[in-house]
Amino acid sequence: MFGWRGKLGIIMPDNNTILEPELYGYLPEGVSLNCGRAVMHGVAAKDRIPTGVAALPGVIEGLQKRVGVISYACMTTSIFQPLGWQKSLETFTKGTPFLPAGETMICALRQVNARKIGIFSPWLEEISSRVPEWFAQFDIEVVRNVNIPFTRDEVTVHDVEEFYSHIINEFRSQKIDALGIMGTDWGTFSIINPLERDLGVPVISSNLALLWCMLGVLGIRDNIGVGQLFDFDTPVEVPSLG
């Protein structure tokens, strides 16, 4: 009876140890999570991302026809790749909806009518500096862009809860429609509701946007109790961006 309502297929970079355990506790009844990993090589993002993308066809083949939707849970790939890059994978997905992480974030922000946003990320400057320009392509203005830089190995041992006060101090006085917490490799669900109460705006993390969009594509609209994003009842459409 596993996945009798829907099966989610998520592909992650090989260093991600957070996304799976975070999502397991919030899957609606009858929904299963099926994961694969894309092995990356290199230290700098510009080196790691192409090798991860090159690995996707093989991982997709292992999931295709077994799940109802596939996502690639790498925010930095969306930021570094040209818009519409995922279309090159249609030969391999063979009709199964494929959702890059960045595009699910855009869909979620549009769902809450966010045009001016704050961004909080764990990224080095080489990545975080690209964020405002990337969102501008979708007519979304990044009013304040805050990053806590770690190396790619350090980020897995930190919890975003450690930075709660820092987030509040950075964004409380900003005139924003929503706060985006970027990155799929740190847990965020536990602080989203408190942050929304303290900031007075929707808070959307990469992992929350991924789960919301994948469930919506399958027509599953259960409210998981995290964030205003899941309060909306309008249908979710497959992202068509770029």
Describe, in plain words, how this protein is organized in 3D.
The chain has 242 residues and is α/β, with parallel strands linked by helices. It folds into 2 domains: 6-101 and 207-223, Rossmann fold, CATH 3.40.50.12500; 104-205, Rossmann fold. Helices cover 36% and strands 18% of the residues. It is built from 10 helices and 8 strands. The strands form 2 sheets. The protein has a 4-stranded parallel beta sheet with strand order 2-1-3-4. The longest helix is centred in the first third of the chain and has 19 residues, at 45-63. It is globular and about 50 Å long. The mean pLDDT is 89.
List keywords for this structure.
242 residues; alpha/beta; Rossmann fold; 2 domains; four-stranded parallel beta sheet
Mean pLDDT level? 89
Order of helices and strands: EHEHEHHEHEHHEHEHEH
- Model regions low in confidence, pLDDT < 50 over at least 5 residues: none
The overall strand count is: 8
CATH topology annotation of the largest domain: Rossmann fold
Tally the helices: 10
The geometry reads as globular
**Major sheet characteristics:** 4 strands, parallel
Helix content range: 25-40%
**What's the end-to-end separation, in Å?**
37 Å
Question: Which structural category fits the helices and strands?
Answer: alpha/beta
Total domain units: 2
Sheet-strand content, in percent, reads 15-25%
Radius of gyration, taken over Cα atoms and rounded to an integer in Å: 17 Å
